[in-house]
Write a structure and sequence with these properties.
The structure holds 2 protein chains of 2 kinds. By secondary structure, chain A is α/β, with parallel strands linked by helices. In chain A, 28% of the residues lie in helices and 28% in strands. Chain B is of the alpha/beta class. Chain B folds into 3 domains: 3-151, Gcn5-related N-acetyltransferase (GNAT) (Aminopeptidase, 3-Layer(aba) Sandwich), CATH 3.40.630; 167-283 and 474-488, ATPase, nucleotide binding domain (Nucleotidyltransferase, domain 5, 2-Layer Sandwich); 291-466, Nucleotidyltransferase, domain 5 (2-Layer Sandwich). In chain B, helix 9 packs across helix 10 and helix 9 packs antiparallel against helix 13 (406-431). Chain B starts with a strand and ends in a 23-residue tail after the last helix. Classes of the chains: A alpha/beta, B alpha/beta. The interface between A and B is large, with 39 and 47 residues.
Chain lengths: 205, 511
């Protein structure tokens, strides 16, 4: 049984079980309130699922890609929750949750702000039920996707405004079950911090 | 007047009835009802006596809380008129709430007369919320009763008892230090700081996104290190405290999100606290046995803040007298260091090169000290003009082909900052007749500022307090210390709905 958290788009929190499926899921689409809502959403999801912290086997978290500030809220919450509970963190690429269950080639596209999008390309679902990511995640201007995504024309494009923590949790359960590698532990910002080195002090006179 | 609380016995009923009749008049209970209630095992009655005259009962309070029940009721509370406004009512309420908690209650209820604003204020401040009105409940006066309820935090059946100081973990991520501290009351147990300062050095100042990324990576390692340093386990904690502002939004959110999630996973109450008041709170952790005397003026100077506060009470009464209207003092140090070709952070490097310099050689401007500013900006600061003045001075001398006397420029600049900080702080002490000054914030590490503070306060007959330097820079221990003060004062936890507030006003001590 996993607590699952994703804040790569809005805020989504779920409790899932490999056998029983989705026990609870709560979504908040607002992309500017992650830090405000995360606590109450975790607490409500656990209560609705009727699950105690001790019953969880880990915390699944969406590592992005996603805009920095919001993305970090989910990862910080997942890490701190897992640390307190003495359970492992299961990192998952957020786009994998969107592609979960897709049967045809799919290009997942999410908003990266500043007139860019995040993308990942999937060929379909493998025999274990996991989405097969063949390229990405990447970052591109929307009108450049055709150039940067290999075999762009072969995919159905899906622009996702939300990422479901329930789907993310189910992906994590399958990774767990089939001993498949999790995502890396680094947040997928895909952008450097917005800063430029100064060329030296400016004159004032 | 000091008070002592003890359990009420049947022998106290007469004294209780005297207070009961004089306080409640037509609403007073009969002596028989009172005697039965005091004797019941389902209740908990306390009487308060004057420490100087232990036979004299000056207040009492009763709780109905059957063991194993989910609900508890405040039955009655009264204090003698001579003791009012001295916190006795709060002391009694806090003791009853603690007892309700230890008996396993999850909610405490009470009724208060609609025409008793004093009592209402106390209950509000303890976290009670009005849930219903009973019209014309108090007869014959026909006054409404307001029903109020307090949700009691779980997990405090041990630890936060009256005899044991609260054990609190503090999380601070408002700028570039990831700070985790653990305190028991006013005793420091752990202070782990992971700084991203080196990553900012090449940019000449804190880059918010770089700081926030560093917090995310440093957080759980710092938590583990703090727990090991304090030699405690998570179950022993009584509460978690976190900085919810002011500071850099993206950085604050890492700490806020982590603190909320941790509070749920280990089932401990969470207190969202003010970073600036935390700097003042650091002083309670000094280990020289002296206690902070209030009220005090506090001067907080860091890379992000330059504020002058009047602190009357650490948990309930802090007033902002003034603050910088442009750059913080620490920022001015960084900027002047850069134009002198010195590395970041500027403070220590300016200090280093100022040795041997003449602080009186160049008269740099003192912002907002002109008589015309005395009215509107008496306690405000401005360092932007000073920075520009230094830049202009350096440019003029460079343009003239002269060698820049770095030691003199650094010493004169530093003197201007120290002078304006202390001039305004001492003016506040004098104007408000508060002969105490507390320093806090990372810039206090600057030797000349501490030196000038010592000189000026001593000349003015003002007591100077500087918390240990390790606790002056941003840290989690000060946040834990303020959290422990809030727990001890009986404040209700902050819940889970607060956000990161980059401009949290200093008057909001707990969010």
């Amino acid at each position: 049984m996993l607590l699952a958290i994703d804040t790569s788009a809005g805020t989504s929190v779920a409790v899932v079980d490999r056998d029983a499926g989705v026990l609870a899921e709560i979504n908040e689409a607002d992309t500017r309130r992650h830090a405000e809502v995360i606590g109450t959403m975790i607490s409500t999801a656990l209560r609705e699922a009727g699950v105690a912290v001790a019953d969880l086997s880990g915390v699944a978290v969406g590592m992005g890609p996603g805009p920095f500030t919001g993305l970090r809220v989910g990862i910080a919450a997942a890490r701190a929750f897992a640390w307190g509970a003495g359970k492992p963190v299961v990192p998952v690429v957020s786009h994998d949750a969107v592609a979960f269950g897709a049967t045809e080639p799919l290009l997942v596209v999410t908003d990266a702000r500043r007139r860019e999008v995040y993308w990942s390309a999937y060929s379909g679902t493998d025999e274990q039920g996991l989405p097969v990511r063949v390229s990405g995640p990447g970052l591109a201007p929307p009108d450049a996707l055709g150039e940067v995504v290999p075999g762009y024309d072969g995919y159905r494009r899906f622009d996702a405004a939300e990422v479901s923590a329930a789907s993310l949790g189910l992906v994590a359960e399958l990774l767990y079950l089939h001993r498949r590698p999790f995502a890396g532990s680094e947040a997928l910002y895909l952008r450097s911090p917005d800063v430029t080195l100064s060329s030296g002090p400016k004159r004032v006179s | 007047m000091a008070f002592e609380l003890r359990n009420a016995t049947p022998a106290d009923v007469d004294a209780i009835m005297q207070l009961e009749s004089s306080t409640f008049g037509t609403d007073a209970w009969s002596p028989a009802v009172m005697a039965a209630d005091v004797a019941s095992t389902n209740t908990y009655y306390l009487v308060a006596a004057d420490s100087a005259d232990p036979g004299r009962v000056v207040g009492y309070a009763g709780l109905l809380a059957p063991r194993g029940g989910m609900d508890a009721d405040i039955q009655t509370i009264a204090v003698a008129p001579v003791t009012r406004r001295r916190g006795l009512g709060r002391m009694l309420m806090v003791a009853l709430i603690a007892e309700a908690r230890s008996r396993g209650a999850r909610s405490v209820f009470l009724e208060v007369r609609a025409d008793n604003p004093g009592a209402r204020e106390l209950y509000d401040s303890l976290g009670f919320e009005q849930i219903a009105v009973r019209p014309k409940y108090y007869q014959p006066d026909g006054v409404d009763a307001h029903i109020m309820k307090l949700a009691v935090a779980r997990g405090q059946t041990h630890g936060a008892s009256a005899t044991q100081e609260p054990l609190v973990l503090g999380i601070e991520t408002s700028c570039d230090e990831t700070g985790i501290g653990i305190v028991r009351g006013t005793t420091l147990l752990a202070n782990v700081i992971s700084s991203s300062m080196e990553e900012h050095a090449r940019y000449g100042g804190v880059v918010p996104e770089v700081a926030a990324r560093a917090h995310l990576e440093a957080l759980t390692p710092a938590l583990s290190a703090a727990l090991a340093e304090a030699g405690i386990t998570l179950d022993e904690l009584d509460a978690i405290a976190v900085t919810s502002g002011p500071g850099l939004s993206g950085a604050l959110m890492v700490g806020v999100a982590a603190a909320k999630a941790l509070s749920i996973s280990i089932d401990k109450p969470l207190y969202a606290v003010n970073h600036l008041v935390g700097h003042v709170g650091a002083d309670v952790l000094r280990d020289d046995g002296t206690e902070i005397e209030l009220p005090t003026i506090a001067l907080l100077v860091s890379g992000g803040h330059t504020s002058l506060l009047l602190v009357r009470d650490l948990v309930s009464d802090v007033e902002l007298l003034g603050e910088t209207i442009d750059d913080a003092a620490g920022e001015a140090f960084d900027k002047v260091a850069r134009l002198l070709g010195l590395p970041y952070p500027g403070g220590p490097h300016i200090d280093r090169v100022a040795i041997g310099g003449d602080p009186a050689s160049i008269r740099f401007p003192r912002g907002l000290t002109h008589p015309k500013d005395a009215e509107k900006h008496r306690y405000d600061f401005s360092f932007s003009g000073l920075k520009t003045a230094v830049a202009r001075w350096v440019e003029q001398h460079r343009d003239a082909g002269e060698e820049i006397p770095i030691a003199d420029v650094a010493a004169s600049f530093r003197e201007a900052v120290a002078d304006v900080l202390l001039t305004k702080a001492i003016a506040a002490c004098r104007d408000l007749e508060v002969p105490r000054l507390l320093l806090g914030g990372g810039v206090v590490a600057n030797a000349r500022i501490r030196e000038l503070a010592a000189e000026r306060t001593s000349a003015a007959g003002i007591e100077l307090r500087v918390p240990p330097l390790a606790l002056c820079t941003d840290n989690g221990a000060m946040i834990a210390a303020l959290g422990a003060q809030l727990v001890r004062a009986g404040n209700a936890p902050s819940g889970l709905d607060f956000g990161a507030d980059s401009t949290l006003p200093v008057t909001t001590i707990q969010a």
